[in-house]
Write a structure and sequence with these properties.
9% strand, single chain, 5-stranded parallel β-sheet, alpha/beta, globular, TIM Barrel
Length: 296
Amino acid sequence: MPEPFHGVLPALITPFSQDGSAIDSEALAAIVDRLVGAGVTGLVPGGSTGEFTTLSGTERRQLVEATVQAAAGRVPVVASTGALSTRKTVELSVHAERSGAAAVMIVPPFYDALSWRELLAHYTAVADAIEIPIMYYNLPSATGVTLTTAQLRELPVTCLKDTGGDAVAATELIHTDGPTLLNGWDTLTFAALAAGVRAVVWGTASIVPEQCVELHRLLIDDIDLRAARELWARLWPLCHFLEGQSYSAAVKAACQLVGDTTGPVRAPLLPLDEAAIRELAALLEHATLPKAAADR
C-alpha cells in the first residue's frame, strides 16, 4: 500500500462541550480549518492527545466522522483505532475506513502483556479486515511493548508513530528497511527531521502549526540548519514544558490560550493549575515571536 505521509500531522485535541459531556463538532471543525490553513499535511484524531481512553465507542466513531467531514479531502485523516480487544480494534478500524480515513493508527493493547505471537495476530486481524494502511503507535511507556526492528518489519504496518523516546532505535529504523518512521516525541522533533524523517505526528502542531510547518520546511525542503536551529530554540522550551505536564491537559490548555474552543479535559485528567498556565502563556508568546523580536 502506498505511504502517503509527508510533513506535519497534528495530534488533535478532542474539544468537548462546556460540561465535558459531549464532543463539540463545531469547535473541531474550526480547529481543523485553522490547522489546514496553516499548512499541515494530515490530521490524527483520537490519539493520546485526543483523550481517547475517556471516549465511548460511539464517541470515537463520531470523532472520526466529524474530522473526516471537516477535512473535506484537503488532507488525509489518520484515525486512532487502538483498543484493548482485537474485535473492538477491528470494528473501529473498519468504521474508520468506511468513514473516509486514509489510514488507522493502532496502539498495542495496553492492559494484558501480549506475547509477540499474540501481538502479530492482533495486527494481522486488522490488516485482513481493511485496505487502508496501518500506522503502528509505538508507545512503550503506556503499553510496556518494545519491539525490535526485525519485529516491526514483520508486522503488517506501513509506518509507525514513534513515541518511544529512544533516538538510537529510531535512527536504526530511519537508516534501514522497514516501516516508515514518523516522529511522535516532541523534544526529539528537530533531531528526527535532521536525521531524515519526512513526517511528524506532533501535539505541538495543534497549538502553533505555522511554526511547526516552518521547522519541517527548513530542515527537509530548504536544509537551512541555521534558521532551523533559531526556530527550534523557541519551540523546544514549549515542547519540554508539555512533556513535563499531563500532556493532553497541557496541549488542550495551550490550544485554548491561542483561541480554540476546547472545553475541559475529562477526568481523571485535571486542568493545569494557575502557575502552569502562566508559564505556558509565556512559552507560547516566546514560541510565536517574530525572529527579530526573539533575538532581542
